[in-house]
Design brief:
Helices cover about 50% and strands about 20% of the residues. By secondary structure, it is an alpha+beta fold. It folds into two domains: about 50 residues; about 80 residues, PH-domain like, CATH 2.30.29. β2 and β3 form a beta hairpin. The longest helix has 26 residues.
């Protein structure tokens, strides 16, 4: 097994984030500048600027997912929600072929999507990150179990 990453560590889909932020910036600038170039009234121009800001905000929201692992557990930040988990709550970290992101199987029998590791645009990076998170979960769950028992 490879060496565990130093904690705290953040896993996030970097390429996807870069593309979303770049696209958002281009959209904002385009939607904001075109009405001024066309000579529209100020109130109309402001509505276009507001629309551009909303579009940028939506894309920024899609770029939000990440997984932050530290000494006490994992924080999973998805698009609209975030959840804090203790290491002992994570039973298994899975990323099967065709999965859109990592899934965390939890001790309560549920599964939590962790969108911070996505194989879509960077498959090798996602596999490396998933293995690192799996190794951390296995090492930390065992350690916390030994401390409690």
């Amino acid at each position: 097994m490879s060496e565990l990453p130093a904690l705290p560590v953040t896993f996030r889909p970097s390429r996807t984030r870069a593309i979303l932020f770049a696209l958002g910036a281009v959209m904002f600038v385009t939607v904001s500048v075109v009405p001024f170039v066309l000579g529209l009234r100020t109130s109309e121009c402001l509505s276009f600027v507001f629309t551009g800001a909303v579009l940028f905000g939506g894309l920024a929201l899609l770029a939000r997912p990440r997984i932050v692992a530290d000494e006490t557990g994992v924080t999973v930040v998805n698009i609209a929600r975030s959840r804090r988990l203790a290491w002992a709550e994570i039973v298994q970290v899975t990323l099967r072929p065709g999965d859109p992101w990592v899934f965390l199987n939890l001790s309560d029998g549920t599964s939590l999507a962790a969108m911070g590791i996505q194989p879509g645009m960077a498959k090798e990076s996602a596999l490396t990150d998933a293995r690192a998170l799996r190794a951390l979960a296995e090492a930390r769950s065992t350690a916390s179990g030994q401390l409690q028992g």
